[in-house]
Write the structure tokens for this entry.
Amino acid sequence: MNKIFLCLMVCFFCHYAKAQLSDSFEKGTIITCEGVKIDGYIKTNDLSHLSSEICFKLAEKDVKYIKYNTTQIQSFQTATGKIFDLLAMQINEDSMGIKVFANLILKGETSLYKTIFKSKIFYIVVREDKNYVLQDDELIFGETEIRKYNYQGVLNFATEGFLTKKYSKIAFKEKDFTKIISEYNTSKGYKSKEETYDEKNIHYTIVNIGGGGKKDESEFFLQAMYRLYYPKISRSTSLNFGLNYFNYQYLRIIQ
């Protein structure tokens, strides 16, 4: 009886965790490269994957979905306010050209976008149909020095020197980029609008219990894990808390 109960508990919690990590689709619209507008539902529970492709289905109840990449659609948006446009940009000191879906953060005469490509965050400043990439400095495997991409200089050039007129140094932070570009638009007589939306984090708990034994000894264990995912970053990025409890008993028969 105890073994049956343990098996049922394990199966229940595994199903519970799986349900909390199931794919989520939001009502939205895609616009193809031919300019065709299609309403349906877009998978958005892992925003890091949206830079290169999206999963789309016409009805919420549909089990199967269609994948669209950067050669098929030019933009998409959800009913909750997520707006993504297809942008071409040069990264790694202009040595590599890519096309990505970028999330609109600040809309104005000069706009700011954000994308995640190969687990790295990039910001793109769009002014007069030109794209300026803000890329953070990084240490490349096998190199001894940090590779610098001069994001501050790029932002200063994109804002026609406005950055250095007001700030001596800035960090690679979204709020700093948003503030500077908004102030730059204001100095030119243009308004800016932050494109914000609510994004709930994903919470789930895994509990695993079990036990066993053989001659003269037995054991019991209990494991619990709380995990918090951050969809704005990636489904693979999480905060974890765990608790393990083990109880061993050894019996010796004295004759």
The longest strand covers residues 234-250.
